[in-house]
Amino acid sequence: MKTLLSFGHGFSARALTPLLLADGWQVIGTTRSAEKANALRAEGVEPVIFGEPLEAAMARASHVLTSAGPDTDGDPVLNAYGPLLETHLGSKAWVGYLSTTGVYGDHGGDWVDEETPLTPATRRGRMRVEAEAAWQALATATGAPLHIFRLAGIYGPGRGPFAKVRDGTARRIVKPGQVFSRIHVEDIAQILAASIARPRSGAIYNLCDDDPAPPEDVIGHAAELLGLPVPPAVPFETAEMTPMARSFYAESKRVRNDRVKQELGVTLKFPDYRSGLADLLQRERLAPK
Questions:
Q1: CA distances from 199 to 51, 148, 203, 205 (A)
Q2: What is the pTM of this model?
């Protein structure tokens, strides 16, 4: 039986899960709390607390996905399970690492693709470059079929702008020339599934939609969909923001996604933020009260 061992089984991996379960897979997911473990179990996932022994789960797994981001100590999965991965990863049919388009750094709004040099402008981006390199080194040493997925800004059910627009806390922060790429979580899931079905060891894919856009446009459109006043524009220079939030504006680029279309045959469900936000709002309205 095909079995996915998913490290850091979070938002993106949980969107992939029903696609695999419907096809007869087993999914094992790590998490850090008993509460989250119970939630995963309710979704049909076999939970394991991160840090506990994983020899049996690794032996069962035919495929491995890691979504855990690096910190100042490096990649947490490699740190916790390095020897286990060195022993077993080469025997897997597919290994996926979820990274970020932040590895490309700032390009002044110009386009980047998978061949663009990695020049991250933030500490987070530099840690991701180091983590990618560590996973690539492990794949080279073990022969593991590693696939790297560089994700743009993720949104989806429960993770969108509507709540802040409704409660009046949304802000349209304007920095001239600033654009971001983004991706609906269901498109992440279908791209991962397509790669699993058509693996190419060493492949790198950008995961984003077709419409890089200024962040203030997204907030404005969300307000229009809700029939609420568009929040006023706030200049970036004077906006009150956390250092983390401000760091996102240090990079502006448009990300190409041609490879997932041409190589994996993917047609995006939500090719722009307008279709994605319309989907989220429709789900909200149909959800049980």
A1: 29, 11, 8, 12
A2: 0.96
